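Hello again, I could really use a second opinion on something today. I've been staring at a protein lately and its backbone has me curious. You're getting the sequence in one-letter code plus the fold written as tokens. I'd be grateful if you could look everything over and explain what you see. No rush at all, and the record is pasted right below:
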Amino acid sequence: MLEVNHVHKAYQNHTAVEDISFQMKQGEITGLIGPNGAGKSTTVSMIATLLRPDKGQILFNGEDIAKNPKIIRSSLGYVPQDIALYESLTGMDNFEFWGNAYHLSKALKKERIKQLSDMIGFTESELNRKVKEYSGGMKRRLNIAVALLHEPQLVILDEPTVGIDLQSRKQILSAIEQLKKAGTAILYVGHYLEEVERLCDRILIFNQGRCVWNDTVSNSLIQSGNKISLEQLYEELSIN
């Protein structure tokens, strides 16, 4: 579905990403982890067509997204770390706004709002409150849901559980598992290693602009016949 092939990106004299390559498949969750400044955000921005690679290609279903960004934009659900909601509107108003932006029919929009509200655990009364009255966890849940209205093939989740309450975290992790079962490809960018171990099929570890690890979770957590934690793998790779 998604192929990142030998991608480079630099800003003036600083190389942000150097020779990054990986693939994502339908129905799989790929975890992208690494310290701040490792190149994660730059890579995500290139996949989302917010930046163009200086070298290399990013292919979506076999087509170069730099040459034709529309091929991925209509199939992408991008959930940034910063909340992208209209806080003066209600949760339902946000659903309606984004449903119209995605050109959904009235019937499909109604159906998807019901499905997604159930998935993130929102009641009708909660949907009718203004977003500015929500807790941080509720905002994050809604932030994810509006990005899923158009049933994207590929979803990018950038730190979806940072700084939230336990209930919201459980709802979000459950929603991610439901998306996987539905066949969605998910790029999960995070710092919480236990979530990556639980959710992901494949792990990418970035450090200093390079991908220093790319393997399945099962292979990654078995070293010399012994089971290790993702934290131990991190330490072995001297990630800091």
